[in-house]
Hints:
Elements lengths: L1 E2 L3 E4 L13 E4 H4 L4 H12 L2 H4 L3 E6 L5 H14 L4 E5 L6 H10 L8 E7 L11 E7 L8 H11 L4 E4 L12 E7 L2 E8 L3 H10 L2 H9 L5 E4 L5 H12 L7 E2 L20 H6 L13 E5 L6 E5 L2 E3 L1 H15 L10 E4 L5 H9 L3 E4 L4 H8 L5 E4 L3 E4 L7 H15 L12 H12 L1 E12 L1 H14 L3 H11 L6 E6 L2 E2 L6 E2 L4 E5 L4 E6 L7 E11 L9 H16 L1 H5 L6 E2 L1
Parallel strand pairs: 1-9, 4-5, 4-6, 5-10, 11-12, 11-13, 16-17, 16-18
Antiparallel strand pairs: 2-8, 3-7, 6-7, 9-10, 13-14, 14-15, 18-19, 20-26, 20-27, 21-24, 22-23, 24-25, 25-26
Helix pairs in contact: 2-4, 2-6, 8-14, 11-12, 11-14, 17-18
The protein binds 1-O-phosphono-alpha-D-glucopyranose and zinc ion.
Amino acid sequence: MSTFKVSRIETRPFDGQKPGTSGLRKKVKVFAQTHYLQNFVQATFNALTCDKIKGNTLVVSGDGRYYSKDAIQIIIKMSAANGVRRVWVGQNGLLSTPAVSAVIRERVGTDGSKASGAFILTASHNPGGPTEDFGIKYNMENGGPAPEGVTDKIYENTTTIKEYLIAENLPDVDISKIGSTNFSGPEGEFEVEVFDSTDTYVNLMKSIFDFEAIKKLLACPKFTFCYDSLHGVAGVYAKRIFIEELGANESSLLNCTPKEDFGGGHPDPNLTYAKELVQRMGLGKNSEVEPPEFGGAADGDADRNMILGKRFFVTPSDSVAIIAANAVEAIPYFSDGLKGVARSMPTSAALDVVAEALNLKFFEVPTGWKFFGNLMDAGLCSVCGEESFGTGSDHVREKDGIWAVLAWLSILAQKNKEKLNGEKLVTVEDIVRQHWSTYGRHYYTRYDYENVDAGGAKELMAHLVNLQSDLPQVNKIVKEANSAVSNVIKGDEFEYKDSVDGSVSKHQGIRYFFEDGSRLVFRLSGTGSEGATIRVYIEQYEKDSSKTGRDSQEALKPLVEAALRLSKMQEFTGRSEPTVIT
Ligand code: G1P
Ligand code: ZN
């Protein structure tokens, strides 16, 4: 057993190590500066109480993006020096974000040990590679992202840090081979265990869903399936679950080999970036081959999902509402009923309508998954989602891309169980249209203005807040933009008081409510790594089932015009078009 020494390395603070909506994300060249990652890791250790570190087990892994392998070796050496007892690493450093959450919650080491937290190495849906983004975030014992109290402390520590601890002479560990390596240090033994990236997660999925039912659906010749991992970590899970466990054909998988640079693509599962899948599903131009019945995609770290039917897009806001409406019947894990449901504020109110109809507890929380965690820990929420392609449940404390696909496959399996011998199948589109006719439809779109000047973005937001005190003026502007929109009856800034721990989160987005139930929301992204990103969320409710079949961009045009005029988008940002429309 090789022995290591602990070195104390002198360092100085770096500016801007403030974790955003989901950890610290910067360009690789920023992270690769001497001491940069080390400072953040030490600041995290120092923010956690000793009993969470000393003698404990930590998980370190991520989506496999460029710089992950270097980062893993650094974190292993710093963990050893800080008195951690064991580090668990997914084979090749790969674990999806929801799988990390599952590993923290479920995995038991051979000696009965459990993990007390994890460093997740990912910048989620941001591109990867030497000139792109890297990211790191810390998850706690419950499997969820560190709460604001902890991330604030981490940030504070980064501003005063003077030294970090590292076991410099600890040899690099081969993370490509499953097995344990033991070392001996000043505080005793230290172990690095490399384990299978999929086992814990797959077992959890098998305990939630009826795999036999899904297998039957996938075996039905009329049901065709396609899944795109966009070269992110989801590929590892897709191969194991869809091919090995559920019997889907290899040709059903697109881009399922994880790559450090995601094949040069933008690993975000939406209609703009998941081009190949969109084309295959018949939503692109000139698609001639008959598209599959079902399509799914994931982002880099596999916590996001996109759900498509044949030539049909399911909005994430509808997706969570439909999953909630069907969960008890279609998913064994929920057969005793849902404890409650929740959505992030900018997500459409489709879920609200289901909650009301089914008499379920309902919560509206700020953007970012961490707010759902408290509700789940308190047993108040079973299913939740965000408009930004995030859907999940209380099986882990992260959103879960593959879970969402399995949830949809379960709903399809349940609706089609009597039809698998050749009858016409109930399609994704049928399910969504049926849902609209029962609950009404929330037309919904989001406009993103990426990488705009931070000063201009701030001014735009300040302008929108100021405007709220003068509703007559607001109404004058929106009517000038388009006389078809209804009256604005209220404007505010969303503020959230956590009903479980009482913490208050302010400035969570600027909202304008209209008389007919429409809504505009404006907020600044907390996950970008350059400049500012303004997001505009546009929503309109239609109860009349004869009017729920319109094209959504067409239906929302008047409201979009009102949003652009109200915010003086072009004036403040110089942009006449958004970078992404979803
Ligand atoms: C974005 C999404 C948000 C999601 C987060 C992490 O954050 O809008 O819903 O939780 O990514 O995936 P934003 O950039 O808007 O702060
Ligand atoms: Zn992600």
